[in-house]
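Before the break, one more example. Copy the sequence into your notebook; we will annotate it together after we see the structure.
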Amino acid sequence: MSKKFLRWSKVPYAGESKPPGDPVTSTAGSWSLTYLKRNRKGDFLNPKGVKMHLPIIHPDHIDFEKELKIVQSTLRNNNPTHEKNAVFYGTGVPTKQWSPVIDRLIDSYGVTPVYAARILLAVQAAVNDTMIVVWDYKYKWDTARPNQYDHEMETEICTPRFPSYPSGHASMSGCSEVVLSYFFPREAKKLRKFAEDDAVSRLYAGVHFPIDNTEGLKLGRFIGKVVVDHLKTQRNPNRTPIDAPYREYRNAEFIADDFKQFIPYDFADDCSSRVKEKDKDREKYSYSDNDKFNDNRNNERIVDSDTYKNVYSDNKRDIERYNNRHNNVYIDKNRDKDKDIESSIDSDKHNDKAESSSHQNRRNPHPFFNFKNLF
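Here is what the structure looks like once it is written out:
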């Protein structure tokens, strides 16, 4: 294998003296799959048993030194919103923020008990398979974290104790987005925003390179589509499709209010690698109605649209080049032209008039950050 990139198992984290000797679930890449399969050579197969050509760039073809510059510049220029994003999605395991999303969708659309179980199985089993694929790649390629390239780096959150590429948060988010959008197509735009926020949070945190996230999103979305294509083949005894996606829009509210945790938990805050010194209680961060950010470190800092547009002035050109090189995973310029996931769903309509009559007063969807403006 090429020696173009540093190995996670060979280099200490920033602030540490020895390479990491505590790998997390290093054998998970060989665990049992649910929808996907594996042949004797270790190749991953789709549910039909056909070898998949997974869409991910080999790390030999990645310029990690250029990627590192983007991470360094991002950490220098993070604003309070980016910091809160990093902490919100980085608190707990990758699935922590998605579980409440699934529950809120099930509740909002009045899903029946058995069908709710099917949706939970589909999403979680697809995520299981995605994470197994990701862990197989992580330990096979053994790519170092950003703070192993820069031993002075102080990250926003503690750097996880396993290899970097690809990102588990980004991969499972891309998969969850696609599978949930199959069942709830009218929520696809919000689900996409949630997945992209989760992915980019790892860059804001300084624990992943940008390409870890974009390639992770792409990989997760691919596996999600493989699972959805399999679900579409499943039939009732009368040969009608089992799934009838919910076509009406009930605007399920699963976007966190000011990055407050859906399920708070007092996680241990010990970390042996370098982390930026911040207030222990991130929940004290809040925005007032006039968009002024207040905390007990500073008096007041105005956070307006110009701040978001200019936050990456130092590395805007590098990030634009990066986005263009990697197919603009964060910026889908053809989103309006494509029918996205909704266009791939069978034309069978979900015709539940009794439920829809009780949801006549619909609110406008939440506004979304435009990653083009951020970058």
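The CA atoms of residues 163 and 222 lie 22 Å apart. Residues 279-316, 326-375 have pLDDT under 50 and may be disordered. Try to locate both features in your own notes.
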